[in-house]
Specification:
By secondary structure, the chain is of the alpha/beta class. It has 2 helices and 11 strands. The protein folds into 2 domains: about 120 residues, no CATH class; about 30 residues.
């Protein structure tokens, strides 16, 4: 029985962790913001000017662009959220376009892989990612089933062993 209480306590402790808000600048290409800055370069020639170069295989953050067609947000912690919720006309913006002068390369001075938009980002909104956001219970169904089954088996075994002894 003590094992089950310990397991329940551990799950509660892990599910209530707080996530700090993250901010910075990066290079937006498609639905990813590359965040490992390497320096400046002229990857498209001197006529195009200096570009901020980010590492193509470095750290990146996915951009969630999926809003819900309803009143509930579809906020995803750990991702940059940029979407519109219809019909409530709610906009979630965590990206600010600063310029169109960034690119990604494997190494600084190497061949440019893609050109992107230089952005400022902010994600992990502390009002939504601090453990107060309701967790979708269907993601934890297996845990509830396992706990219920384990508790049931424990009590049945104890009851049967008590009946056999008497």
């Amino acid at each position: 029985m003590h094992r089950y209480l310990l397991l329940i306590g551990l799950v509660c402790l892990l599910s209530s962790k707080s996530i700090a808000q993250t901010t910075g600048n990066g290079c937006l290409i498609g639905t990813a913001v590359y965040t490992t800055f390497m320096g400046t370069d002229t990857p498209y020639g001197a006529a195009m000017g200096q570009f901020k170069i980010y590492q193509s295989n470095g750290a990146g953050v996915y951009v969630n662009t999926v809003g819900n067609s309803g009143t509930r947000e579809n906020y995803v912690c750990g991702q940059i959220n940029e979407y519109y919720v219809y019909p409530s006309n709610f906009h979630r913006h965590e990206l600010i376009e600063l310029s169109y002068d960034c690119a990604i390369e494997a190494t600084l001075g190497g061949t440019p892989i893609a050109r992107g938009t230089y952005v400022s980002y902010s994600y992990n909104d502390p009002t939504l990612c601090n453990g107060n956001m309701p967790a979708p219970l269907e993601n934890y169904q297996w845990l509830f089933v396992a706990l219920t089954a384990g508790t049931t088996i424990y009590f049945l075994r104890n009851r049967l062993s008590t009946e056999i002894e008497s």
